[in-house]
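pls ignore typos typing on phone
tetradecanoyl-COA + seq
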Amino acid sequence: MRMNQTASAAHRDARMRVDADANAAPRDASADADARGVADGAPDARDARNDATRERDVDGDGDGDGDRARDATGAAAAVNAARDDDAPTVSSVLDALVKHHLAEREGKRTSRMPSHEFWETQPVGQFGEDTSRGAARREGPIDAPKLASETSASGGALPPGYEWCSCDMTDSKTQEEVYELLTNNYVEDDDAMFRFQYSQEFLKWALRPPEYHGDWHVGVRLKVTQTLVAFITGVPAKLRVKGKEIDLAEINFLCIHKKLRSKRIAPTLIKEITRRVNMRDVWQAVYTAGVVLPKPISKARYWHRSLDIKKLVDIGFTRLGRDNSMSRAVQMFKLASKPKSEGLRHMTEADVPRVTALLSKYLTRFAVAPIMNEAEVRHWLLPREEVVYSYVVEDEKTNKITDFVSFYNLPSQIIHSKTKHKTLKAAYSYYNVATSMPLVKLMEDALILARNNAFDVFNALDLMENESFLSALKFGIGDGNLHYYLYNWRILEDLEPREIALVLT
Ligand code: MYA
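k done
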């Protein structure tokens, strides 16, 4: 399968074979390798590019896998260096190994580690820093608290000819401009086949939650023509991180026009949103990205469930395994015509208090989770046509809401479509709570509802308890990771994705 993914929902390439008899492969190293294989198992040019990408990652991005690989290659280099000596001895080899490991432990950068000129100056976890129990570092804010009044009142310097603006997302012309910028320049998969296409309705939803701040919707315009060429946003939220409640900004939609890339404008945008957030006395942020930066708190993986396998194959999103045929694949992904759970219905306004209670209780189970009041549940979870889909199961006797399931609509444009299809319609799993039935049963209904709403594919991260249904419901594993980050908040140990209960749109 060829899938687009990630960043705040970022895209990354994810390709899987759909075998006749195969459910999703288990998530281990061999499964990862398998997931990258294509129909006949012979790597094609695109695979080679992906492998190259993986190599770059391995070259010291600091994620777990890369670190292991780097340890191995670094150690090998150390051994080779020792061997170059005319008379290599066991002790010289050991010496080189020991030196290498000491350097790694002390966090010294090896030549294989990329530098992060900007991120190394920011209050974020750094690769190689000592977070062991004995170390002085503690969980919590990285920078000492400051006063909002200490924050500079004006924005950082942009290249000549450009100026800052706030994008008024209540204004239809501005909405259109933001939509155009993102539609043509936002996240793509590695092969530039698919690009996220957030609808204007979606953007209004994502950027105007309760208590949002218009000045956190930051734009850069060309002075002369007023064309919008770059964008980054924050919305206010409350997050619980390992028992501590933090008022912070959720950062999303970082985008620079393709013609202005690699000019170090991104750090300027990030500094400007930081300044505007700080002006409101907020000092922490959470964000997700497909890329590895200093330093993820967790690494999640996308899984994909085909709903319209024929279209997915037609548009090159999915490829069938050598031993598979379209008719067998269609059979394999067949779903019931309507949901099976008794009493499953659309969430309504009257459900808001009970859904808030159900969800809030459920979310306390996880190390990282949003804290939502009723106004926020109303905003984020009440159904909005073509944006967010939410359903509840109500116990007829007690009137309790026992189960809740939701997904949002994030289509991707098919960039160089050779078929009649111009758009891939993807549903993304959002927040789900099952108490009267196993989660797998509730999610099977979610798949049916998504298929009945004309979605082509259903995507889910391996967050929360999602692993309990992914393989069982024939999701296939993707190879794009979504990294979770906290700004100005240190945690000492990386978290497993199942400990994360935050879904950023
Ligand atoms: S993730 C979605 C990101 N958007 C896209 O992928 C859309 C398509 N790509 C683009 O528009 C550009 O390629 C972007 C980079 C804008 C991504 N997050 O200007 P440059 C660092 C953070 O020369 P460009 C989302 O929206 C890179 O490592 N940093 O690069 C969440 C390097 O720094 P360093 C990133 O390619 C955003 C520097 O930028 C990202 O022209 C969260 C190079 O700058 C990235 N996704 O533009 C933002 N990609 O040298 C952080 C590259 O150090 C928020 N870079 O490695 C932090 C919290 C702020 C608020 C705090 C409040 C308290």
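The first strand starts at residue 17 and ends at 18. Residues 150 and 487 are 19 Å apart (CA to CA). more later
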